[in-house]
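so my prof wants the structure for this chain in the tokens format not the other one, which i didnt know existed until like an hour ago. anyway here's the sequence
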Amino acid sequence: MLADVEFTQSFACTPSELFGILVAPEFLEEFASEVGVTQRATHVSQPSDSTVVELHWKFPTNNVPAFARRFVPDVVELDWRTSWTDLGGDSMLGTYLARSGDPSAQFTGNMSIRAAEGGRSELRQSGSVHAERRGLIPGSFITGPLESLFHAVLADEAKVVARWLNQSA
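here's what i got, hopefully its the right format
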């Protein structure tokens, strides 16, 4: 079952500053803590003309709405890989793939950073959540809770970015 996710935030900084925050290992550690990740591994590399961020997270699913918790395990393991390319002119484009084994789910999509009005930058994240059947539970019952969880993770990311910029989210 597929569900579309879209999330846009605006920050008072340049696109380069925002990008620098999103790929900083210290930021990624703080972001993981904000989300409630209990175990994590982070790797940032710069092959050729891109920047790649790889995360391996284990986190509780207590952010999933109560009615849906029975459809997901207590802890989810997530491998998340984002590959960023500088498009020039204060624009960056990232593609991401995040996978979980239980429940069997995949988050795929794009992220972009661009200059916005008033000296601000816009971070736009869009993509799809796909979940497969978990035992007798159809994927459609799992997709909604995972979509909610993904939105909560992105909202937490925005809070941490705002803290790094000393702004309110």
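also thought this was worth mentioning. Residues 139-164 form the longest helix (26 residues).
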